[in-house]
Amino acid sequence: MIIKIDFESEEAIYIQLRNQIIMGIATDRIHEGDSLPSVRQLAENIGINMHTVNKAYTVLKQEGYIKLDRRRGAVIALDIDKIRSIERLREELSVLLARSVCKNISREEVHDLVDEIYDYYTGGGQG
Questions:
Q1: 117 within domain boundaries
Q2: What is the pLDDT, as a whole number, of residue 119?
Q3: Where is the HTH gntR-type domain (predicted)?
Q4: Are residue 38 and residue 57 in the same domain, yes or no?
Q5: So what's the pLDDT on residue 127?
Q6: Domain that holds residue 116
């Protein structure tokens, strides 16, 4: 698993780490049942504090992307309730779309961008 952290970004490192893992799942680089590196191992590999990795894993667990297993550590477990996921997506999209409207980005431009990104993750645009 390759994690790229932008230490110059205004986005918190634990959020970047969380997002990288979610994108890894969406692009099939990480699969259901895969074990993630231990908190210590990942922190050392990236060069960040163990508490930061622990916070990212905690958020991923709360969001239903991983479960914590005594023997295997953090394991990908996609048991998210779809209705809850749609509601969370609605909240996140509301802010993004409000920002788009403020920047005069058209509905068509938003739809095209959503289609492009969705196709990237589902393989619809490859081939």
A1: yes
A2: 94
A3: 11-79
A4: yes
A5: 44
A6: 82-122
Please tell me whether residues 98 and 53 are part of one structural domain: no
Domain total in the chain: 2
pLDDT at 92 over 60: yes
CA–CA separation, 75 and 29 (whole Å)? 14
Q: What is the pLDDT of residue 88?
A: 87
Model pLDDT for residues 93-119, shown as the tens digit of each residue: 999 999 999 999 999 999 999 999 999
Residues 70 and 47 in one domain: yes
